[in-house]
């Protein structure tokens, strides 16, 4: 009998996104759990992929990404954030933002290092920290607006802190960090060697006249940061898994060392198509209005229900509070909502290391009006 090695991640199971999507499929429920659109990406973008496939661009791309795509990323970054990274030394194309996050953490976290994580948080951060031998240090965001308690952050920093991970706009809560938040973070890190990993994949989904303030706009933070973005989110192509990281040359050099042994390169026809389509600046410039309209439509549907909510400030997720409906644990309620009501959501406890249950669910509103209307009708029966 084989004596198998013990698990490197003994407390990690199947992700909540897979669990809830599988349950939704089994019960033919409306899936507002996993964060993906139920509508297609722009047809011209699809046509470009087909064009490049037929033209024979189906082999490996350069490890760091096609030069023409990195150049377009550099120009777009300058247009949006006023900073033009060097496309050769500061921009790396990755197979999705999740790969970029993995590569960034793996590049700088060593055994014994501490990494500060603001909870609730996207579920890929902590497993990678642990695989690198690092220790996550958890700081809870403050309810009800999920803002950062910078005093707590300051108090938890130590001589072992190597990295702090921030996410704005924030998944799962939709909170958006302000310019003042960035200034406060910069002041806290001044005089230290602590690095920043800024997950900004929802950068073009900020609502109600607010702005997304990127780490790239702050010179003191920029020099110590990895900034991760996602074409999957921006172009409604989550299944293509194309993202990128912007970082100073020395950090990019280390990130690429990890990237080349994780995926090496990213699909060539997708990169070529995206590089061409980036000329259509209107797409990402109009994305805030596009998703705000969907948020507002979904909130109209929620008005008919017993759920409580504060309008999401960003992302394509909306939190709802259900403590006026039941005192069930959020995972149990989410499963029952899927099997009995026919609408799947994500329980927010899944984003806490200790499964903190504040009676919140997360719905994804990156859906057609038909889907959101049908979901609203079902949720009104709860």
UniProtKB/TrEMBL annotation:
Cofactors: pyridoxal 5'-phosphate
UniProt-listed SUPFAM superfamilies: PLP-dependent transferases (SSF53383)
Phylogenetic classification of the source organism: Bacteria, Pseudomonadati, Bacteroidota, Cytophagia, Cytophagales
GO cellular component: cytoplasm
Stretches assigned to coiled coil: none
Stored InterPro entries: Aminotransferase_I/II_large, Kynurenine-oxoglutarate_AT, PyrdxlP-dep_Trfase, PyrdxlP-dep_Trfase_major, PyrdxlP-dep_Trfase_small
Protein name in UniProt: Aminotransferase
Family: Belongs to the class-I pyridoxal-phosphate-dependent aminotransferase family.
Residue ranges occupied by any Aminotransferase class I/classII large domain in the UniProt entry: 29-375
GO molecular-function terms, A-Z: kynurenine-oxoglutarate transaminase activity; pyridoxal phosphate binding
Key words, A-Z: Aminotransferase, Pyridoxal phosphate, Transferase
